[in-house]
Design a protein that fits this description.
The chain is of the alpha/beta class and 238 residues long. It has eight helices and nine strands.
């Protein structure tokens, strides 16, 4: 069995650190799981869950304390799945979340978790962006990662050319509609588009679809991206 390397974007595999995340990978995307790593300190109850699940899915399980330490850089990581990186085609008939140049891995993972909570299962990531395969993203998603379709695009134009027959709702400061007003006009399929944490969406998005702005007080300059996208997904899913 080949030795495992510390995570790098160039690798063709990644890691899903954490017991719950590992279980989600096995249950929802078993075909991409290469093997499961466990700590010698893992609780018996956790082992009793993992052993039959790995056997059912045909996935090898092995003790690997040193590898877990390298992967998670935390002392309390007792399990991790090693999984193949896969770009999964998005559905043309489902609603999408589009993340344009998102940079923070924690934000990305949190948004993925929230998206699944509001039944948005198709996520487009426009590069340059945080590495969607990074273990920090996978862990922050709390396993939601393995129930979503994610695909990266080199530009918004590339994404738009693939999905022309839908409504676009870019969230921008110059937006004329509130989320509630935009929701009234929304039909399936549609795409909610969010920009970079620092700079938001580029000016050209003022000419794409229907611009949306979340009302807020002038006591803060903007809302955190993960919070803003959560508000939007909640309103549009009602």
């Amino acid at each position: 069995m080949a030795s495992l390397k510390p995570y790098d974007r160039k690798l063709d595999y990644s890691y899903a650190p954490g017991l719950f995340t590992t279980i989600e990978a096995l249950n929802n995307r078993p075909e991409c799981v290469r093997r499961v790593l466990v700590s010698t300190k893992i609780e018996d109850s956790a082992l009793q869950t993992l052993i039959p699940l790995c056997k059912e899915k045909g996935v090898r399980m092995e003790q690997a304390d040193k590898a877990l330490s390298r992967i998670s850089r935390k002392e309390n990581c007792f399990a991790a799945a090693v999984f193949d990186k896969q770009q999964i085609s998005l559905s043309k008939s489902e609603n999408h979340i589009v993340l344009h140049n998102i940079q923070d891995k924690g934000n990305l993972g949190t948004i993925l978790r929230t998206a699944l909570g509001f039944n948005y299962t198709d996520i487009a990531i426009i590069r340059p962006a945080a590495d969607s395969f990074d273990p920090k993203v996978v862990r922050a998603s709390m396993g939601a990662y393995f129930s979503l379709r994610l695909k990266e695009y080199d530009s918004f134009s590339e994404y738009q050319n693939e999905f022309r027959l839908r409504q676009f709702f870019p969230f921008i400061l110059s937006g004329k509609l509130s989320p509630e007003e935009a929701k009234e006009t929304a039909k399936k399929p549609h795409s909610l588009i969010f920009g970079n944490e620092a700079s938001g969406l580029p000016k050209e998005f003022e000419n794409i679809g229907l611009g949306v702005r979340i009302p807020q007080s002038d006591r803060v300059d903007s809302l955190n991206l993960a919070i803003a996208s959560s508000i939007a997904m909640y309103v549009f899913s009602r």
